[in-house]
Amino acid sequence: MKVTRESVTPTEVTLNIVMDSEDEDPFVNRSYRRTVGRLQIPGFRKGKAPRSIVESYVGRTALVQEALEFMIPETLDKVLKEEDVQAFIEPQIEVTEIEPVSFTAVVPLEPQVDLGEFRSIRLQKEVPEIDDERVAEVLEQLRQESAPWEPAERPVNFGDLLNLNVLGTIDDEQVVDDQAVDYVPQAENVLPFPGFAVYLEGMAEDEEKEFTLTIPEDYPRPQYAGKECHFYVQVLSIKEKRLPDLDDEFAKGVGEGYDDLEALRQHLRQRLEEEAEAEANRRLEQESLEELVKVATVRASDMLYQREVDRMQQDRERSLQNQRIPMETYLGYLGQTAEEFREQLRPMAEDRLTRYLVLRKLAEEENVEVSSEEVEEEIDSLVSSAGDSEEAMRRALSSESAKENVQSSLTDRKVIQRLVQIFQGEEGGSEGESQETPESEQPPASEPDREPPDQDAPEPNVPVADVEPLDSTHAGETT
Known about the structure:
Elements: E1 2-8, E2 12-18, H1 21-36, H2 51-58, H3 60-83, E3 92-97, E4 102-108, E5 112-114, H4 132-146, E6 149-151, E7 161-170, E8 173-183, E9 208-214, E10 228-241, H5 248-252, H6 261-295, E11 297-299, H7 302-322, H8 327-334, H9 338-365, H10 372-384, H11 390-396, H12 400-423
Antiparallel strand pairs: 1-2, 2-4, 3-4, 5-11, 6-10, 7-8, 7-10, 9-10
Helix pairs in contact: 1-3, 4-6, 6-9, 6-12, 7-9, 9-12, 10-11, 10-12
């Protein structure tokens, strides 16, 4: 076997491998044993024809072709060991010849990561003060949420709950057809198109109205941007909220009940302070990771970034399949080709991979590890919070790959905590309390060549119809 290094860079090695008949023979023999059982050769019982007869019957090339599926990976593994080359992810292979078997392997190497002068960075946690005004805002939200909808004997106001019949056409194409749909008109409500809600203000119950709305030029669906939509609207009913008085009786009816209004206020203040503290922790973690990425230098094979793009695209396709939406339909909704969609994913893939590699390097430098006991504790915690799905959750987390993903997630959490300590000047500090890294900032939860767990990330809730459903009952409500 002849092995030559065609090119060597700090992030990739390209190997040309040419096998000889002696190298090929054990693999061709395995191929023969697999093939002979499928053939009925005259003069021989099935599976008993010798290799020389099978080769003359099907041709040596056919046996070699079938052997490639195990010949290539096993030969490459042997070559990598002999050449002392460590592949970071699965190499890219191209078969160049069959007789003799020759192939090229582009091998991605361990990325080079320099964290730079990150230890001199200092960040401080900033927790906003919860004042009386903020408590009053939340109290008003509770008041709004608890108020019942009751019929209103007046024209439509913003914030009402309407029941409508709506038809909308663009260029003689019907794009909206909603009957008896609930809708809350508010200035920020952009359904079905921006500005629609404004035309409803002042309408009376049972009133019918027609109007033409110009869709903004920057509307995200280019097929409708800048066009005119003609609407027919009928108001079937108008409801408004009857707000209760803010008194002790109101407080007793909130949640499990409070002794009086002041007790409710104190509870809200405490909850808001806890939320502010948690948000400040998340913000500090996010800023810490961003600052680390700024000063770090990462050199990695382009194959790693392409693999991350592949993974992100596969994740999106899976989420679309769960909604029974073909990828082609989704791309049409975006107004993009498959190539344009992948190009759009590239910056996000680079960011995710860079964050992963930087945190991985920091974990190595800081000796951050997660024990098997910690993994089991985390799994127990996840299972106990699954409610009626405890058994299903336990089964889902019982595989080795699932445990590896849990371990990776815990490692990310620990190393982020350590980074925060460093940036706060606590070089010798112990690990703090568990603080979740914001989902939007999570690096890949596993090694780049390992399938990550189902994300976390929200599915692209894409309507199959041309425009969004009009039902926006909760669009304007405060939660």
